[in-house]
Write a structure and sequence with these properties.
2 domains; 7-stranded parallel β-sheet; Rossmann fold; binds nicotinamide-adenine-dinucleotide; alpha/beta; UDP-galactose 4-epimerase, domain 1
């Protein structure tokens, strides 16, 4: 039996991955300090330990007690503007925290590690970006994710594990189980903002920058539904086990949409949407979308949600559920 530790399993993406993992035969153990996670996102079929990945003793205890053999490492801070203001906090959590987790793998049973990285490590890009593009992180958050990647790669041989570094593009939407979705609204994620505004009588969306060198001046991103991303994690774990080979993999659908393109689709649902153009945000790049060749080759899965209106509906539906629960 597999014993999988999910760090950050009480968060948005982590809870969706756990929802997929509990369908397998594996035993799932979550460690989360609930800094930005939520009790109500914790899957009842998983074992939950409240704790911090910076706590070596606690992690070691979990490793021994549950005989952990695989890790999905999501625990991190990810507020881009907060990272610029509070670099130390982000370094300690995202870099030192990752190093601590990896050091626990010494003399352990860990065979596979899946790490949540980000397309932000590429910086500004032209055209579809593949995994071989040199990293050029622009903001501090992106730098911490890239440092995390380097730590995982550095110790792989020494501690005898295989890794899958998954570079997520922009993740959105919610599970069709209607039980989990994105709660935290402080990250400035476009689909979360849209979902919040969709419930208002007079919806207003701020667009950060209309002077980028893109088709309509607004930023272009590759939006992937969280449920497809979660299935990809289960497949990545399987790949590591069966092929015994490490990999770095972009996770996106391969098409870039500008903020205005997404908003135009939202306007079909909410006709009185008001769009406010405001200043650029620090750390945002103009264009980033994925080259999906490697993903298609390695992760053989049926993509279910590659459609902006579908992702919009999924995000809005969850927001309604969340509001009614309060
Ligand atoms: N959301 C996106 O679009 C996106 C894109 C690229 C990469 N990522 C990465 O995906 C991962 C998950 O992001 P999310 O969107 O689910 O955010 P989230 O804030 O919902 O989840 C992060 C979880 O980690 C926990 N956590 C943070 N620091 C911890 C620590 N020191 N010890 C224990 N638990 C800790 C939080 O409480 C939270 O539950 C992150 O690593 C993030 O960098 C997210």
């Amino acid at each position: 039996m597999n014993n999988i530790l999910v760090t950050g399993g009480a968060g948005y993406i982590g809870s969706h991955i756990v929802e997929q993992l509990v369908k397998t035969k594996a035993r799932i153990i979550i460690i989360d300090n609930l800094a930005t996670g939520y009790k109500k996102l914790i899957n009842k079929k998983a074992i939950f330990v409240k704790g911090d990945i910076k706590n070596f003793k606690k992690l070691s205890k979990i490793f021994n007690k549950y005989k952990i053999d695989s890790i999905i490492h999501l625990a991190a801070y990810l507020n881009i503007s907060e990272a610029e203001r509070n670099k130390k906090k982000y370094y300690q959590n995202n870099v030192t925290g990752t190093l601590n987790l990896i050091k626990c793998c010494k003399s352990s049973n860990i065979k596979s590690i899946v790490f949540s990285s980000s397309c932000s490590i590429y910086g500004d890009t032209v055209g579809a970006v593949d995994e071989n593009k040199r990293a050029n992180p622009k903001g501090y958050y992106a730098r911490t994710k890239y440092e995390g990647e380097k730590i995982i790669i550095k110790y792989a041989k020494k501690y005898n594990y295989k890794y899958a570094i998954l570079r997520y593009f922009n993740i959105a939407g919610a599970s069709s189980s209607n039980k989990i979705g994105e709660i935290n609204s402080s990250y400035g994620h476009l689909f979360k903002n849209i979902a919040i505004q969709s419930l208002k009588k007079k919806p207003v969306i701020n667009v950060y920058g209309a002077d980028y060198k893109t088709k309509d001046g607004t930023c272009v991103r590759d939006y992937m539904h969280v449920s497809d991303l979660s299935v990809a994690h289960v497949k990545a774990l399987k790949y590591l086990k069966e092929k015994s080979k490490s990999m770095i993999l972009n996770c996106g659908y391969g098409k870039g949409y500008s903020v205005l393109e997404v908003l135009r689709k939202f306007k079909k649902i909410k006709k009185n949407l008001k769009i406010n153009f405001v200043q650029r945000r620090k750390g945002d790049v103009a264009v980033v979308y994925s080259d999906t060749k490697k993903f298609k080759k390695t992760i053989k899965m049926k993509i279910k949600y590659n459609n902006i209106p579908k992702i919009l509906k999924s995000s809005i539906k969850w927001e309604r559920i969340l509001k009614n629960r309060k």
